Amino acid sequence: MPSFMNTLGAVSRRGQWRFRHVFRSADPAGRLDITDAGLIDFSAASDVVLTVTPRAPKWRELWCWSSIGCCAGDAPPVLLASLSTGTLVVSNPGLVEALFPAGSLLAIPPGLYDVRVSVTIGPETAEIFDEPIEFA
Length: 136
Fold this sequence. Notes:
By secondary structure, the chain is mainly beta. The chain is built from 1 helix and 8 strands. The strands form 2 sheets. The chain has a 5-stranded mixed beta sheet, with no helix packed on it. A 3-stranded antiparallel beta sheet has the order 2-6-5, with no helix packed on it. A hairpin with a 3-residue loop joins strand 5 and strand 6.
């Protein structure tokens, strides 16, 4: 799922980072429902997971094919928060929040990363958020 807008902006690696996002559904016309009824209810979710992984270089998308093995998987997360481990909080309806304290980002090299949020309900897991962030 490619992202083209950096809605999360840049974060200093020296301070804390609080991920806070309000998730909304679409109305019957397909537009974002900005009423309270449009807030997504996460009460049926068994887990909500936030991962931060290094953004793949553009050349990888242009020159790698799985048949030669260089696209065998994404890099492991450099940051992880989840509902099941208590490092991510869901305030129903709609609000997902994770706090990474000051000092927790210092070991991460500066650059572009992908922030992804996945939700598990029953046997199914779906990625519901994928946006870039810059750690400076």
